[in-house]
Amino acid sequence: MNAITIYLDEQWVNAISGKDPRIAARVFAEALTHRFPALTLQYLGITKLELFYDEKNIHSRDLENTLRSILRNQFQLDAEYMDVVMTVKYAELDPSEYAEDTDEYPDNFNADADSQMAIKDPAEMEDTPGSGNSHANAEYTTADTDTQFTTTNTRAESAATYTEPESTANGAETESGTAGADAAPTAAKAATSAIASAPRLPGGYIPEGGPALKKIRKLRGYDSLVQLCNSIHAMLPYLRSSARLLDVLDDRVYLFSVNIGVGMTAPISDFFDYLVEDQLIPGNGGGCELRISPDTGEYLSLNDAKAYMAQSEASLFCIDITDWVDDIDDPAFRDFLLYLYAQDSECRFIFKMPYLEKKVINHVASVLGDIFTLDTIVLPPLPEELLIRSVEDQLKDYGFRADADAMELFRKRVNEEKSDGHFYGVSTINKIVREMVVAKLRSLAESKAMQCGECSAPSDAREPQDAESSEVKDCSSDADCNDATHKMTASVKAQPANTKHGTVSAPVKLSYEDRLITAKDLPSLVSPKSLKELTPEEKLAELVGIDSVRKQMDKILKEITKSGTENVDFGHLNIRFIGNPGTGRTEIARILGAILKERGVLKNGGFLEHDITDLAGCIEGETVPKTLAICRDAEGSVLFIDEIFREEPETGEDAEELQQGMSDKGESSPTPEQLALAKKRKIRYRREAMDALISEMKNPETHMLTVISGTEADMARLEKEYPELSSDMPYEIRFEDFSREELGEIYLHMAKRDRFRVEKGLSDEVMNYFRKLPDQVLRSGTFSNARYVRNLFERTTSKTLLREELGTSISRKREITSADFRLAADESTEVLNEKEPKRYPMGFHL
User: Fold this and answer.
1) Which phi and psi (to 5°) does residue 91 adopt?
2) Of the candidates 320, 292, 296, 324, which has an alpha carbon nearest to the alpha carbon of residue 306?
3) 3-state secondary structure of 292
4) If you ran DSSP here, which 8-state letter would residue 323 be given?
5) How far apart are CA 513 and CA 174, in angstroms?
6) Distance from C-alpha of 845 to C-alpha of 262, rounded to nearest angstrom
7) Labelling 292: which of 30, 154, 453, 586 has CA 20 to 30 A away?
8) Are the CB atoms for 361 and 241 separated by under 8 Å?
9) CB within 8 A of 164, min separation 6: which ones?
10) How far apart are CA 697 and CA 75, in angstroms?
11) Which residues contact 405 (CB under 8 A, 6 or more apart)?
């Protein structure tokens, strides 16, 4: 059995498809199965389709000729552009790979006499003149002549439309949205044979559910969405028993309250697909998303939203009301809801907001329910168990599995993503899974190539050869060479290569062992710090200037475990770290978690780093769910909270933030009252976060170690606000500033750790540099100790690597010179004291 996979250019698909981006792939599928009845459709996406066939009955050359005929006759595409818009790959299948039954894809997509589409055989097609559109002029006639129609292009491209693809569990992409204004094709709705072949009731009802509903049912963590879709689907036969009954859904809207760890766009896009599938909304209008806001220029005002929607042809509007949650009772917002109520009955509305406290969700629902009938879909944060099962499902879809060590690296990577503030639920999980699969394939390719010297040797290291001997050795019949990749390479070399469309003659068959992803295959999945395989004691031994910290930590560890590891009081297993920035607080917390895991106190020993703004919400009711979700992620691990007063800046950030938003709207500067209100909200949300955090860390059932870190002034201020903190956090470790000598030793240790050589005499120059640092720099209150050293070291090595890359020598000595160091040391102390910012801010984002 063989497979043909067809990839279509995404921009071309969007340009020729109008409102339904699935048209192009469906045209290819229908035409191919009509021309070759023995073809079996295995996968049908938007820019990809895959079909199985027996090469004894169908020749690949005939398939490719047919594909070109489709592009020429049905899409009026010239030959010179065909290679640009279409890529074809062939593969020979192992019987075990296609014998599995799957609910996701139709078993057969063959067009027969009862098919809904009557498509010409490509071999019999005649060229027809175009309609003036250089992309396409395709018309499709259905068996029912009443359903013949053409589509037109949609509204102009806007930032408010769905354009971002969502990754699905099997690695394919689903898209919702509309084409740009420059796309003006004529096309017709292409019916899906998989749906057409299923038993139906009048009105297009499939008793067991169509592909979109089946997909939703398989999603993990979407329980309330699955329940809603099943409920609607079960009602359809009754609703369609009378034309009048269908009107009861006309004013129904849907409120989505979704945690960022689940992903926002994916469930809404899946829900849109389901509504179209069950013909509850017209699918030809697509869906669009807009965010409305009462007081900033970054998003749409209510009037702007009305104007936009009046010009749109979308059949589903997803309206982000996050910024209106605090002002949900405003009469202007209710007037906006009345405007929506008066719109065309074929439009449907989804309102979305973050995962909030139940009382806030209920209040928002009551406001919407005053005007509409309503269903509320609440999707809470995904627990680790569901994340792991989701990863296993996705790896299985790719044909792989991961061992326990690889899954442990996955957990560390997720913790890194969450600590950096850019964990986006399903999308992030899909990204990590794809990275794991690519890393495994790269590992396989490298290991196979290394088994044959000729395959692995770099071209500049081989012996000079003449033209005849420069060909790869054909070892396909060599008994001494057992490498499948080498034999495959030789086999391909001996055959005429057909790479014009990306064809492959002899793909490698992966064994059961090849499909196992191990930790060895994933060297770059996590940061080097997380991957470094040292014991906690070895990590402590590497640190400079921590003798005092080590003594304090040993004393605390004895106290924690004096009653045995099974009787640890987690309600009081909390520590305060007091010290200036850069004194090693974060690294010691990381090592402490590893030690407690070794001693059986913590189950996972992981490390999650956050500052207080990560826990605090931006709107009413968001803070407590965010804090509780972070605490749940830290189960069995260390939760490290830093910069507890970061959100109350003295540098005018509040004013700058408001000024930017108001100037975007052409309004004047923020008033003192507006600034005071913004700061008051931030203070309230921080206090809510601290209240929720303290409540959780006092809970003996919450098995985590909480470390709150700050300066002496921060801790004094915090204890003033929470007098009971000293009893709730009975342990403390104090971190002293590093001496000048220790700062120099830290720099030289970093060079040794990262395998850089130092030029002769540079060690003395480094030590002299730190000895001469002015007292006003060290005592300024902003000096960041080891962070200052790290920034200086990183700037030095950056100059070293750049100099060697641009040099004339091909060798790379990785040697730091005095010139490199002096250039880096010329940076201002403000720059060298800076803390590396998070890559993305926490909060509610799409």
Assistant:
1) -150, 150
2) 292
3) strand
4) G
5) 31
6) 12
7) 154
8) no
9) 265, 846
10) 64
11) 518, 519
Give Dmax (Cα) for the chain: 92
The confidence score (pLDDT) of residue 809 equals 67
Quickly list DSSP for 523-567: TTSS-HHHH----HHHHHHH-SS-HHHHHHHHHHHHHHHTT-GGG
Distance of alpha carbon 767 from alpha carbon 789, whole angstroms: 12
Q: Where are the beta strands (DSSP E) in 235-336?
A: 252-258, 287-291, 316-320
Per DSSP, the three-state class of 1 is coil
State how far the Cα of 243 lies from the Cα of 230, in Å rounded to an integer: 21
Rounded Cα–Cα distance for residues 317 and 158 (Å): 14
Name the β-bridge partners of 379. 258
CA angle, residues 491, 493, 499, in degrees to nearest 5 = 110
Burial bucket for residue 547 (CB in 10 Å: 0-12, 13-18, 19+):
exposed
Residue with the two structure tokens 């697909």: 273
- Do residues 109 and 211 lie in contact, with contact meaning Cβ atoms separated by under 8 Å? no
Distance CA 819, CA 804 (A): 13
Give me the DSSP letters along 444-495: HHHHHHHTSHHHHS-GGGSPP--TTTTSPP--TT-TT---HHHHHHHHHHHS
Q: How many other C-beta atoms lie within 10 A of the C-beta of residue 541?
A: 11
The bridge status of strand 638-642 relative to strand 705-710 is parallel
Q: Which amino acid is at 368?
A: L
Q: What is the dihedral of CA 482, 485, 487, 488, to 10 degrees?
A: 150
Instruction: State how far the Cα of 690 lies from the Cα of 272, in Å rounded to an integer.
Output: 39
Which residue type is seen at 781?
A: G
Q: What share of the chain is helix, strand, coil (3-state, %, to 5)?
A: 45, 15, 40
| Beta-carbon-side half-sphere exposure of residue 158 (alpha carbons within 13 Å) | 22
CA angle, residues 292, 295, 296, in degrees to nearest 5: 75
The amino acid occupying position 344 is D
Q: How far is CA 574 from the centre of its chain?
A: 33
Using CA atoms in the order 529, 532, 533, 535, what is the torsion angle rounded to 10 degrees? -40
Q: What is the DSSP letter of 737?
A: P
Token pair recorded at residue 688: 């809510």
Look up tokens 């989701």; give the residue.
390
State whether the Cα torsion 180-186-191-192 is positive or negative.
negative
Encoded amino acid at 635, one letter: E
User: Exposed/middle/buried for 338, CB within 10 Å: 0-12, 13-18, 19+?
Assistant: exposed
Would you say 596 and 558 are in contact if contact means Cβ atoms under 8 Å apart? no
Residue 509 DSSP class: P
Q: pLDDT value at position 128? A: 36
For residues 270 and 137, give the distance between their C-alpha atoms in angstroms, rounded to a whole number: 30
> How would you classify the pairing of strands 48-53 and 2-8?
antiparallel
Amino acid at the residue 790: R
Please state whether beta strands 141-142 and 117-118 pair in parallel, antiparallel, or not at all (unpaired): antiparallel
CB atoms within 10 A of CB 423: 19
**Residue numbers in the chain where pLDDT is lower than 50:** 97-202, 454-505, 647-655, 661, 663-666, 839-846
Q: Find all residues with CB under 8 Å of 760, minimum gap 6, and list them.
A: none
Which residues fall within 8 angstroms of residue 809, CB to CB, at 6 or more apart?
none
Q: What is the CA radius of gyration of the chain?
A: 31
Q: How far is residue 401 CA from its own chain's centroid?
A: 20
Residue 89 backbone phi and psi in degrees, to 5: -130, 140
**d(C-alpha 317, C-alpha 306), whole Å:** 12
d(C-alpha 766, C-alpha 744), whole Å:
6
User: What confidence score (pLDDT) does residue 677 get?
Assistant: 78
Per the CB < 8 A criterion, the answer to whether 764 and 813 are in contact is no
DSSP 677: H
* Residue-level length of the chain: 846
Nearest to 20 by CA among 43, 46, 50: 46
CA atoms of 492 and 477, how far apart (whole Å): 14
